[in-house]
Amino acid sequence: MLNWAVDYEQHTESNHMLIRFDIETDKNNTVLDPTTNTYNFKKTDWKIFTETLTNDRFDMTWNRNEQDKIILENMTISLRESIQKAIEKSTSKLRIYVRSKA
């Protein structure tokens, strides 16, 4: 955080004050606009989704040992990637227009 200040011009109609601040980040680490690359889940082909997820062989074996956190993290990443692949194959992306509802 580089700079912050209390914003006295914006009234909250309470005894709270707004704090404005500037954030400097790497351009590579910015958050994507949440309206981009969203999927239209109303039109998901659940049969294709289920088949894709079922046929994807991700490692779900887990034994308790010293490396529990690393193994569990790898399993989680593998499962997330499988779900993302199934969504991409079974679900079309939303088309956002000027008159689209929020």
How does this model look, in words?
This protein has 102 residues and is α+β, with helices and mostly antiparallel strands. It contains two helices and two strands. A two-stranded antiparallel sheet has the order 1-2. The radius of gyration is 22 Å and the shape is flat. The two termini are 30 Å apart. The model has no long low-confidence stretch (mean pLDDT 78).
Distance, first to last CA: 30 Å
Strand order within the widest sheet?
A: 1-2
Rounded to the nearest angstrom, the radius of gyration is 22 Å
Number of helices: 2
Largest pleated sheet = 2 strands, antiparallel
Order of helices and strands: EEHH
Structural class: alpha+beta
Helix fraction by DSSP (H/I, runs of at least 4): 25-40%
The tally of strands reads 2
Mean pLDDT metric? 78
- Shape descriptor reads flat
Low-pLDDT ranges: none
Beta-strand percentage range = 5-15%
